[in-house]
C-alpha cells in the first residue's frame, strides 16, 4: 500500500461509519453481526495472503497480532453487552473515551506527552459528543453495570490502538490483519456459542448486510486505518476516530431517512473542531502553526 496516511485514515473512518447502517438494516443480533463482519473480511483476505506469502511472521508479531485481535473482539462484545443495560447514545459517548485512555497510556507507559493542543482538542471533541447525544441523557445517567461495560469497551479500544501502533512499524498490514481477524473471529464465535446466539439461520437480506460489513467496514475500513496508524501518532488517530459518530449520523440521514436535529449538527461541528485542534502545531513561543 502507498497512500497518504491522513487520506488513508479518512477513508477508513468513512468505511467503518457504515457499520451501524448495516447493523440496523440487518436487524439481527449485534454479536452475530460482529462475528460475520470479521469472518467475511478474513475469508476475503485469506487467498491474497497465501498467494503473496503474507503468512510468514515472527512469533512476537504473531503473539501481538493475536492479542490485538482478541482485544478488538472483546471491545465489540463488551460494547454490545452494554447496550442491553443502558441507552445507545450514552454507551457510545462513554465508549468514545478511548482518546483519553490513549493519551494517558502514552504518558504512563512510554513517557510521551501528548501536548496541550491534544488535551484541548480532546476536551472540545468530547464536549461536542455531549451536545450531539443530548445533555439530558447525561444528567439522567444512572450508575449501573452497563456504564462499567461501556468504560471497559473504551479501555479495550484504546489498548487495541496502542498495540497496533507499536507493532505496525515492523509488520505488513495484511499479515497483521490476517492473524488479528482470525483471532477476533474465533473469539466472537465462542462468545456467540456461549450466549446461544443465532449464527446460521438468516434471510438473504441479512447475509448481504454481513457481506457489506465484512468488505467495506472491516476489510477496507481497518486496512486503511491500521495503515495510517503506522505513520500517524496514536493519540491523533484515536481522537480522529471520534468523527465516526458524525459520519454515521450523516449516513443514517442519507440511507435510513433519519432526521438530524439542530443539536446533532452543532455537536458534530464541535467534534470536528476539536479534532482539528489536535492536528495543529504549537511553535516554541506558543504560537499556533498549521
Average per-residue pLDDT, rounded, comes to 82
> What's the story with the biggest beta sheet?
2 strands, antiparallel
Strand percentage = under 5%
Quickly give the structural class: mainly alpha
Fraction of helical residues:
over 70%
Radius of gyration: 19 Å
- End-to-end distance: 27 Å
Domain module tally:
1
Please report the total strand number as a whole number.
Answer: 2
What's the order of the H and E elements? HHHHHHHHHHHHHHEE
Number of discrete helical segments: 14
Low-pLDDT ranges? 282-290
Q: Order the strands across the largest sheet as they lie in space.
A: 1-2
What is the overall silhouette?
globular
Structure notes:
- The protein is an all-alpha fold.
- The chain has one domain.
- It is built from 14 helices and two strands.
- The protein has helices at 5-16, 19-26, 30-51, 59-82, 88-95, 98-110, 116-133, 135-139, 145-167, 173-195, 204-229, 234-240, 243-255, 262-278, and strands spanning 281-282, 288-289.
- It has a two-stranded antiparallel ribbon.
- A hairpin with a 5-residue loop joins β1 (281-282) and β2 (288-289).
- Mean pLDDT is 82; it is low at 282-290.
Amino acid at each position: 500500500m502507498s497512500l497518504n496516511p491522513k487520506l488513508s485514515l479518512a477513508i477508513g473512518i468513512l468505511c467503518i461509519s457504515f457499520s451501524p447502517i448495516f447493523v440496523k438494516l440487518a436487524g439481527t443480533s449485534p454479536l452475530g453481526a460482529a462475528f460475520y463482519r470479521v469472518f467475511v473480511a478474513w475469508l476475503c483476505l485469506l487467498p491474497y495472503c497465501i498467494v503473496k506469502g503474507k503468512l510468514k511472521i515472527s512469533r512476537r508479531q504473531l503473539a501481538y497480532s493475536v492479542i490485538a485481535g482478541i482485544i478488538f473482539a472483546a471491545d465489540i462484545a463488551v460494547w454490545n453487552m452494554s447496550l442491553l443495560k443502558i441507552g445507545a447514545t450514552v454507551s457510545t459517548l462513554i465508549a468514545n473515551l478511548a482518546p483519553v485512555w490513549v493519551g494517558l497510556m502514552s504518558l504512563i507507559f512510554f513517557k510521551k506527552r501528548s501536548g496541550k493542543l491534544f488535551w484541548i482538542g480532546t476536551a472540545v471533541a468530547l464536549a461536542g459528543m455531549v451536545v450531539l447525544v443530548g445533555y439530558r441523557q447525561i444528567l439522567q445517567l444512572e450508575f449501573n453495570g452497563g456504564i462499567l461495560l461501556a468504560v471497559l469497551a473504551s479501555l479495550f479500544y484504546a489498548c487495541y490502538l496502542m498495540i497496533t501502533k507499536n507493532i505496525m512499524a515492523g509488520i505488513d498490514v495484511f499479515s497483521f490483519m490476517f492473524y488479528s481477524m482470525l483471532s477476533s473471529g474465533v473469539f466472537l464465535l465462542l462468545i456467540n456459542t456461549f450466549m446461544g446466539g443465532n449464527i446460521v439461520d438468516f434471510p438473504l437480506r441479512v447475509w448481504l448486510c454481513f457481506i457489506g460489513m465484512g468488505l467495506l467496514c472491516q476489510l477496507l475500513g481497518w486496512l486503511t486505518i491500521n495503515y495510517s496508524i503506522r505513520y500517524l501518532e496514536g493519540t491523533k488517530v484515536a481522537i480522529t476516530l471520534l468523527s465516526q459518530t458524525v459520519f454515521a449520523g450523516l449516513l443514517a440521514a442519507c440511507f435510513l431517512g433519519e432526521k438530524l436535529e439542530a443539536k446533532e449538527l452543532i455537536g458534530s461541528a464541535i467534534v470536528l473542531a476539536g479534532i482539528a485542534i489536535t492536528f495543529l502545531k504549537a511553535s516554541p513561543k506558543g504560537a499556533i502553526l498549521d
